[in-house]
Amino acid sequence: MDKDLRIKELERELAENKEQTESLEKQVCSYEESSANLKEEIYQLKDFLYSSTAQIAFLKGPDYRIEFANKSVIKVWGKGDDVVGKPLFDVIPEVRDQGIEDYLNKVYNSGEPYHARALPVEHNINGEMVKSYFDFSYMPHYNSDGKIVGVDIIAQDVTQQAMLHQKVRKSEKEFRGLVDFMPHKISIADAEGNSVFYNKSWLDYTGMTMDEFLDSHWTQIIHPEHVEKVEQELAECLEKGKDLDIELKIKDKNGDYKWHLCRAIAMKDDGITTSWISSSTQIQKLKEEEQRKEDFLKLVSHELKTPVTSIKGYVQLLQSILNSEKDNITKPYLHRIEDQIERLIRLISEMLDLSRIEQNELELHTEEFSLNEHVENIIEDIFHTNKDIQIELEHLCKCDIVADKDRIGQVIINFITNALKYSMDAKRVLVKVFYENENHVAVSVKDFGIGIEKKDLNRIFKRFYRVSAKNEETYAGFGIGLYLSNEIIERHNGKILVDSEPGEGSQFTFILPLNQN
Amino acid sequence: MAKILIVDDDQTIGFMLKDILEFSGHEVTVSQQPRKTKENILKHNIELVLLDKLISGVDGTDVCAELREDEEVAKIPIIMMSALHNVGEVCKSAGATEFISKPFDMETLISKTNEILEKHNNKTS
């Protein structure tokens, strides 16, 4: 029994052992499999690290001996696979003094990782120093005891991005320079229309600093009568993303409002407004010219219609008289008609002269004549139509000249009629003919009228310019008489001199060379 | 026959109007000073005023409106004239009895003048 029992026990034990052995065998198999898998994984990982585009290196010990260096980092260093096992600074000694050793020491000694962005490093590639930019991470390498045994390097070559960034910065600097250099006022606003930048021209014009300007509201510098209109247009532009184009008056640093042409365009990304660029150009002078031109045109119609009205009236009157009476009282009326026709002709010829001058077509028809007689005749003619005036003529010399008689006459008439026109009540005019020097003769016309302000002296020869008296009263005429006179005298190689005192009167003198050749 | 005042800064126009109106039997005074219009009306016992729209920088409509507001001369007929065609309404709203644009017909001027004088005399008599 005991024997049987013992056998059964042994058999059971044997079966158990067999089971255990089988299990162990299975386990060993499994370990072997795991080990092979692990080896495969490590190989894959190493292969992955090796062929990664990032630059990866593991450095061991205080002399930073290269334990692992991937293909990418070896390429950057400009070396071969034989670098493994050598100290880093034996392989790339040129980077030691570029701060790299300090960073490594810091990490090795402190255990603190170090990261850097776009750090420039120069490598010696076949004797040539090549500069590249890297994003760096230096990390401490621990052993199983938790002790720092080396430094792991992961870097990414960002040279292209860095160069691009530099280019963008350079381009931005150039554009800013350009924008500041321009006489136009340039500003940039965000999508909501809030200004974020004003160029130098804006700051110079307003006398504000960038911060002051950005803090102030734009309505502060816009003429009150334009604010509402601008607000409306701006709201519409912001809402619809449409360009702005508006003329308005903007206040300068002295508080004066000047006309500007303001334009703004929406900068869009995929159809959505991201910002606004605006340019404002001063058009004050243009506006003034426009105004003067308009005034002039109004005046033309008025001035031309007046004599026509008069002529028409007299013609009709004469007709009535001739119908009712057989009388010779028609004579003075006929004379007046003649005067008006003369006036009309003069105005129209002035207009023609103006266009001739502008097209450089004013021709001179020169002849020899007595300047004294010419002046005398002109004064007589003027007396003929103006009885209540006093013109004193003084001949200080007798002189024959070669010139365009009609044109010179035009200048003398212009001087005298101006003198009378601006004389107010005292219609006294002094005319002198004299030698300016041995080669030049002169005619001066002096009045005792309103005179000319100093600021207006250089403007009176500009076309369409007309002097205004007190109370903004203006005087009849096109404002081209002196402009024409000046042109005529200049074409005779002469010049016009003006001497004037406001309230005292003016003296206009033209000087002509005696020998035109 | 009536006493008429012409206010126009253009002398030739003023005298032309004077000649025409005198020829048709009126007694005419010519003035180039718009600011003295009331003074002239009273001084010469004027019955009708011919007033230019723009006289030496002064707006004739202002002169017209001032006369209309002045009791002493408010009822006097005023004919305004201008070389601008489109200002008739402006002149009338300033109180002008009539507006004539330049250049005008002598017949129109005389007939309008006589018509206005007649109406005015009927009203006052």
TrEMBL record, chain A:
What are the record keywords, sorted? ATP-binding, Kinase, Membrane, Nucleotide-binding, Phosphoprotein, Transferase, Transmembrane, Transmembrane helix, Two-component regulatory system
Report which residue ranges the record marks as coiled coil.
none
- As recorded in UniProt, its EC number(s) are 2.7.13.3
Pfam families assigned: HATPase_c, HisKA, PAS_3, PAS_4
GO MF annotations in UniProt:
ATP binding; phosphorelay response regulator activity; phosphorelay sensor kinase activity; protein kinase activator activity
- The answer to keyword Endoplasmic reticulum applying to this record is no
Where's the Histidine kinase domain?
Answer: 299-516
Spell out the subcellular localization from the entry: Membrane
Q: Which reaction does it catalyse?
A: ATP + protein L-histidine = ADP + protein N-phospho-L-histidine
Which stretches make up the PAS domain? 171-241
Q: Which GO terms describe its cellular component?
A: membrane
Q: Which Gene Ontology BP annotations are present?
A: osmosensory signaling via phosphorelay pathway
Membrane topology, record value? Multi-pass membrane protein
Name listed for the protein in its UniProt record: histidine kinase
TrEMBL record, chain B:
Q: Which residues are in the Response regulatory domain? A: 3-117
In the record, 4-aspartylphosphate modifications are located at D52
Any GO BP: phosphorelay signal transduction system
Gene3D superfamilies recorded for this chain? 3.40.50.2300
Q: Name one Pfam family in it.
A: Response_reg
InterPro entries reported in the protein's UniProt record: Bact_response_regulator, CheY-like_superfamily, Sig_transdc_resp-reg_receiver
Where are the membrane-spanning stretches? none
Q: Which keywords accompany this UniProt record?
A: Phosphoprotein
Name of the protein described by the UniProt record:
Response regulator
Q: Which lineage?
A: Bacteria, Pseudomonadati, Bacteroidota, Flavobacteriia, Flavobacteriales
